[in-house]
Amino acid sequence: LPSDFTTLVAGLGHDLRGPLNVIIGASELLLDEMHDGAGREAWRDDLLGIHTSGKKLCEIVDALVDLARIESGQAPVEPVPVSLREVVEAAAAAHRAAGARLEVVPAGEILAVPVDARRLRRALASVLDAVIERAGADTVTISVAGTSITLGVGPSAQEHLAMDARLALAARICARMDVDVAWRGAALVLTVGEETFPAEGRE
Amino acid sequence: MARILVVDDDAIFGRLTQRRLENAGHQTSTLDGPFGTIAELKKGSVDLLLLDVRMPALSGVDIVRMIRSRSALRDTRIVLYSSLDEDALDEIARKMGVDGHVSKSSGFNRLLGVIDAIVGGRGASA
Fold first, then answer.
1. Which of A29, A52, A162 sits opposite B16 (nearest CB)?
2. Which string of b and e fits A124-145 if b means at least 16 CB within 10 Å?
């Protein structure tokens, strides 16, 4: 993952143009086909493509702006003690409501950790969007234990996610909150770091 | 009319491209990723490969190399179709010696023009 903001932004062109090209292409196709009445059975898919791509762009722009505000000092991170389970459940609830197959599994003692809960929830939601998009019909499993959140991701999805701007931006925002995002095998693990939550301070 | 194989890991965009090409009178098939491209080309029923560049595991560049290293497929006409920066796409296309390249952002009519030029035997231009 890019280690500095400028490199990260410079690499975003493809990820911004991708969904924009779907929006432009699908809407042009709709306009053409609505004019001559052809292809009606595919219009719903076209609209879904436009909607999904718009949401993806919105997430990238939101994360980019938030990251810029953090890095410029305009909106510093605000850690408060919170249960990671609550953060995960809040992020998962919105996805479940949208029809995603998600299972949250407590995998051990869950600690209250000082973290910017609002930002972590947003970052996790963005990561989940990317993971769910690649998981297809499979159920995505999230396990929470100690100071870590682990998302089970298949090897094929992992290759796609490694190129996903949403994940790169979320990881960068997490890094500013001292939350490490790393691959461990085919799992994506978010861990609240030692700087924010030193071992000697844990209950 | 050309028989076109569309290879794009963005399944939504790939299907979109397929329909637009078919509306323009071409015959198409699609793959939602790089795997299976060589097998599909070996069937011999493709006039032109429309190939995304940035794909996981096996990039469009890898696919072009694989095609060019196989004598039976070496003459496959290839157009790179990507959301990469135009300068980067120009450079990749020049290095790989493909028949054409089009930025996905440059409009569908441009893609049609490049395809028509190539399958019509008027040479490649992007």
1. A29
2. bbbbbbbbbbbbeeeebbbbbb
pLDDT digits (tens, 9 = 90+) for B27-50: 999 999 999 999 999 999 999 999
Residue A21 distance to chain B (closest CA, Å)? 6
Global confidence as pTM: 0.80
Determine contact, residues A196/A89, Cβ cutoff 8 Å: no
Note whether A182 and A72 are within 8 A (CB): no
Contacts of A160 in chain B (CB under 8 A): 9, 56
How many angstroms separate the CA atoms of B12 and A48, rounded? 9
**Residue of B56, B85, B108 with shortest CB distance to A25:** B108
Query: CA-CA distance, A28 to A55, in Å (whole number)?
Result: 19
Distance from CA of B46 to the nearest CA of A (A): 24
In percent, the amount of chain B with pLDDT more than 70 equals 95
As a whole number, mean pLDDT of residues A65-85 equals: 90
B102 close to B52: Cβ distance less than 8 angstroms: no
Please name the residue of chain A whose CA is at the shortest distance from the CA of residue B8.
Answer: A18
User: Pick from B9, B16, B23: which is nearest to A22 by CB?
Assistant: B16
